[in-house]
Amino acid sequence: MTQVTYDVTHTPANDDEVEVRAMAASATPPPMVRAHERFLTRGEIGGGVRDVVAQSWRRSARIGVDPDHPAPPVDISAVDLRSLRRDHPLAIAVPLVRSIVLEPDAGWIAALVDAEGRLLWIDGNRTVRAAVERVGFVEGALWREDVAGTNAPGTALATGRPVQVLGAEHWSRPVQSLNCAAAPVHGPDGSVLGVLDITGGAAVGSGMARSLVRSAVAAVEAVLVGSAGRRRGTVGAPDVVAPPEGPDGPPQLQVLGGRGLLRTGDGSPAALTGRHAEILLLLAEHRGGLGAEELAVHLSGDELSTVAVRAEVSRLRRIAGDVVSQSRPYRVRDGVRTDVDVVRSALRVGDLPRALASYPGPVLPRSDAPGVVRVREDLESEMRAAVHASRDPGVITRWVASESGAEDWWAWDRLARVADPRSTAALRAAERLASVAAPAGQTSRNR
């Protein structure tokens, strides 16, 4: 149970995630409490309720889950639970999840859930664990939507997507003091093996918690691929392949660290205007295509007309050729790859050094287009989460030396913890922690 969204195979940032960020400031925002009550008493979905939550509420109501007395069953014996845990494919991921997600002073718990919604392993903060046990969040219990209503692991299984559930978005009133974030874990064949969830208080309502879940799931999936490869006698995790260049390579869009650049199949670079770079990036992020109205919203909220969008796309086609389809909705042709994709691919297989080497800076840093801002914030959040989970002082040092990481208190704190106390890196981290503002409620144990 937790309230966050993190994707393994990366789902582009969407309006749902933006709403989550806005709501995360409060575990149970009063408007959401009222919205929950309105739905229970009148069956009405008011404004401000995210679609993923509204759909889950409807499913919970149809099934008849009691919002006041949920009864997540523990219908398995201790012996059978031990056997299930021993034989489950996710068993090999337990140590990794502990190392990535559960710092000694983390204010949350982590749970690994199987594909049936049964809680197999729970670990973490003892205070939080005691609190969730009171609502039946215990090892062996089933927390599918059909028995527990809207909750992060159950809804992640129901939708097949990462989910964040904040406070009163939970169907069950006894659970509404909690925030949860969960994401499905896929096996090497693409099947859903289960869900990784973190649950806690205000800290779990943050974008960082969402990123942490996604990074951890990516690492777990890489381990599962490696394990399957060893059983077959092949190499474990797949290599991260850099985008091909030269006359036979597909067009490549570069948007990291500066202005946009399109490298076409013959290898020649074409500088892009800010608007054209934004359009190409947004189309690359939405492979199913975007209509003129949708593109206008992603580019400028309600301030850009569809006529202006069509004119920009027409001009872009003269530069980009067949990279942009002639049909509608607008889309980029298959094979177009961005440098954002390269970074995500590296993060997905746990290759943080490669991700850092491929990340010269934020996505189109001068752009204030809403859709671009979401991509920029999500990618940087994923990078931060991966760095914060790293135990490699060299990797963390590289991050804090960048513009994005220079003021990252968590990264400096992590460096101080994992570096040799006598090293230059540790001394520099201690000095930096004395000058970088700590997040509210946090103090470094290295000060």
UniProtKB/TrEMBL annotation:
It comes from the Bacteria. One of its GO terms (biological process) is phosphorelay signal transduction system. Keywords: DNA-binding. Residues 267-332 form the OmpR/PhoB-type domain. SMART domains: Trans_reg_C. The keyword Transit peptide does not apply. Coiled coil: none annotated. Gene3D superfamilies: 3.30.450.40. The keyword DNA-binding applies. One of its GO terms (molecular function) is DNA binding. This is Transcriptional regulator. It comes from Litorihabitans aurantiacus.
